[in-house]
Amino acid sequence: MSTIMDKWFGESNKLVDALFSLASKLQPCIIFIDEIDSFLRERSSTDHEVTATMKAEFMTLWDGLVSSGRVLVLGATNRPGDIDSAFLRRMPKRFSIGLPNDEQREKILTKLLSDVQLDCSVKDLVSITDGMSGSDLKELCRNAAVNSTREYIRKHILDTNGEMQIHNTKEISLRPLKTKDFLDAMDPEKVMKLNVTSDLD
């Protein structure tokens, strides 16, 4: 949606029109809107004029799609209650996508950590990530890697005054990530619920 949202008055409407025009020419085609609630949320009197006119334009063009056409508007959201009812009526089919189970989390983590050295098994990580979504897992892996990098900087690059030293980047070798790195990157409350100690290696 950031591509469509434009600060200049009228430009967003033109981009919405171009979107539907291109979709019609490329059909079969899917117009997918991630986090659709941020764009098609319940309308109110406090809406900015540009936003209100863009929503109206989007709805008009959506209604203009012929039933025999092969253009599908698909949206994803974690907050269906925030979406304008007028738009919900135009999306009669709804599918609830649950959180990934153990097997699915293992596949996601294996993919995310395919180029990362580990000093623990992916199955160990699966057991401590119950209830996490795919985006949660991605953020967890990123934060765990950042923690390891910060540790390296503190030990090998900062001098006693906390100043950066000139360092040959070719010699940098980060240690493999441990279970502790992932636990440290998690919400402390979740770690407590897991009933695991933070000194895991």
Automatic annotation (TrEMBL):
Superkingdom field: Eukaryota
Any one GO molecular-function label of the UniProt entry: ATP hydrolysis activity
TM region positions: none
Gene Ontology biological process: extraction of mislocalized protein from mitochondrial outer membrane
GO CC, alphabetical: mitochondrial outer membrane
Cellular localization per UniProt: Mitochondrion membrane
Main location class: mitochondrion
Annotated SUPFAM superfamilies: P-loop containing nucleoside triphosphate hydrolases (SSF52540)
Protein known as: Uncharacterized protein
Organism listed in the record: Pichia kudriavzevii
